[in-house]
């Protein structure tokens, strides 16, 4: 009898027999990974379709011409400068997020609060930059169904350029927006001491995964829209 | 239940010790450096005709995948997770390679077959 119980115990304690988590991550974090994987496919569908549209066209609007403006400078010619600032802001806010997670491992509530604050500030700054860029491009006449920019070879600009740009950066911007909202909710919980009572800051890690994913998508959007 | 959760978070704690502050900043400067290389290609190398736009595009995408790998491995901490988790997250992305190949074939058809 005792041998059977002993064997059962042994089976349950091995990795793939139900005794413990084979991935040794908490349930919510595992689900966040799988959610992000599904999001990878959504963004890939959008970006690969955009790639196909470019590939089938003889020419395409030159990003150095389309994205040449910075706020406060009338008729400025600064290709990629503004989007460079936006990229830097997002990478920096990703770093402050890891620092928040790192502080969470040491259960340092004050440091988590500090880094979460900078992360949220970075997110809001990025969104403001994007809002300016969008309104500037709309002002130049770019809409979902109209593209004022000519192709690099001088032919009439690809019509779908505006729609692809607004839908894909908009979908990414929506992710940044939800990320900022979730970050604010988590920060309020840190402020209230919820995770201190719980004894761990796993929630900060989970929202961190989401925030890094937003940065990850931007890396691809930046390359495919502004560089290629 | 709560005992189980505590164990998981505790195990976690041990694994996470690998991600130190100095490593975080190191990864940040790698990402920043790669981005600066991309800017150098776009704003200096290409206008001075060091190489063609096609080669530049290839380099851009390669550098982007390098940046993505650093973000996922270190910032998202995937490198330090169990092998099972790494495989279950990374393996499905293989389908995207097929998707890209499919769309290149389709784009090629639209570019040359239909005028």
From TrEMBL, chain A:
Q: Which GO terms describe its molecular function?
A: cytochrome-c oxidase activity
Where in the numbering of this chain does the Heme-copper oxidase subunit III family profile domain appear? 1-228
Q: Which residues cross the membrane?
A: 30-53, 78-100, 112-134, 174-195, 207-227
Q: How does it sit in the membrane?
A: Multi-pass membrane protein
UniProt KW Aminoacyl-tRNA synthetase keyword: no
Q: Which superkingdom is the protein from?
A: Bacteria
Traced from the root, the source organism's taxonomic lineage reads:
Bacteria, Pseudomonadati, Bacteroidota, Sphingobacteriia, Sphingobacteriales
Keywords assigned: Cell membrane, Membrane, Transmembrane, Transmembrane helix
Q: InterPro entries annotated for this entry?
A: Cyt_c/ubiquinol_Oxase_su3 (IPR024791), Cyt_c_oxidase-like_su3 (IPR000298), Cyt_c_oxidase_su3-like_sf (IPR035973), Cyt_c_oxidase_su3_a-hlx (IPR013833)
Which compartments is it annotated to reside in? Cell membrane
The reply on keyword Electron transport is: no
The similarity annotation says: Belongs to the cytochrome c oxidase subunit 3 family.
Q: Pfam families in the record, alphabetically?
A: COX3
Give a GO cellular-component term: plasma membrane
* GO biological process terms, semicolon-separated: aerobic electron transport chain
What's the protein name? Cytochrome oxidase subunit III
Q: Which PROSITE patterns match?
A: COX3 (PS50253)
Automatic annotation (TrEMBL), chain B:
Coiled-coil residues are none
A GO term from the CC aspect: plasma membrane
Top-level taxon? Bacteria
The protein's UniProt keywords, in alphabetical order, are:
Cell membrane, Membrane, Transmembrane, Transmembrane helix
Entry's InterPro entries?
Answer: Cyt_c_oxidase_su4_prok (IPR005171)
Q: Which residues cross the membrane?
A: 23-46, 58-77, 83-105
Tell me one Pfam family matched here: COX4_pro
Protein name, as recorded: Caa(3)-type oxidase
Could you tell me the membrane topology recorded for this protein? Multi-pass membrane protein
Q: Where in the cell is it found?
A: Cell membrane
């Amino acid at each position: 009898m005792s041998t059977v119980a002993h064997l059962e115990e042994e089976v349950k304690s091995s990795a793939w027999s139900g005794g413990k988590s084979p991935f040794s991550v908490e349930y919510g974090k595992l689900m966040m990974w799988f959610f992000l994987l599904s999001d990878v496919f959504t963004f890939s569908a959008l970006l690969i379709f955009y790639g196909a549209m470019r590939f089938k066209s003889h020419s395409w609007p030159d990003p150095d011409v389309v994205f040449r403006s910075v706020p406060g400078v009338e008729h400025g010619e600064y290709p990629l400068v503004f989007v460079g600032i936006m990229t830097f802001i997002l990478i920096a806010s990703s770093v402050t997020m890891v620092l928040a997670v790192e502080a969470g491992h040491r259960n340092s509530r004050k440091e988590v609060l500090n880094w979460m604050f900078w992360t949220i500030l970075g997110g809001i700054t990025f969104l403001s930059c994007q809002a300016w860029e969008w309104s500037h491009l709309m002002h130049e006449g770019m809409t979902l169904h109209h593209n004022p920019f000519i192709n690099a070879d001088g032919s009439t600009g690809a019509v779908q350029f505006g729609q692809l740009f607004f839908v894909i950066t908009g979908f990414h911007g929506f992710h940044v927006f939800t990320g900022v909202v979730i970050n604010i909710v988590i920060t309020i919980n840190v402020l209230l001491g919820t995770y201190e009572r719980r004894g761990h800051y796993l929630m900060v890690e989970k929202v961190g995964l989401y925030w890094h994913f937003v940065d990850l998508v931007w890396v691809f959007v930046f390359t495919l829209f502004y560089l290629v | 239940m709560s005992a189980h959760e505590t164990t998981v978070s505790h195990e976690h704690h041990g694994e996470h010790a690998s991600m130190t502050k100095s490593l975080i900043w190191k990864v940040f400067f790698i990402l920043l450096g790669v981005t600066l290389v991309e800017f150098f290609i776009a704003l200096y190398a290409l206008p001075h005709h060091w190489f063609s736009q096609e080669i530049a595009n290839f380099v851009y995408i390669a550098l982007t995948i390098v940046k993505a790998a650093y973000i996922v491995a270190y910032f998202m901490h995937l490198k330090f997770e169990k092998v099972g988790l790494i495989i279950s997250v990374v393996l499905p992305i293989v389908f995207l390679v097929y998707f890209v190949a499919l769309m290149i074939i389709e784009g090629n058809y639209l570019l040359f077959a239909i005028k």
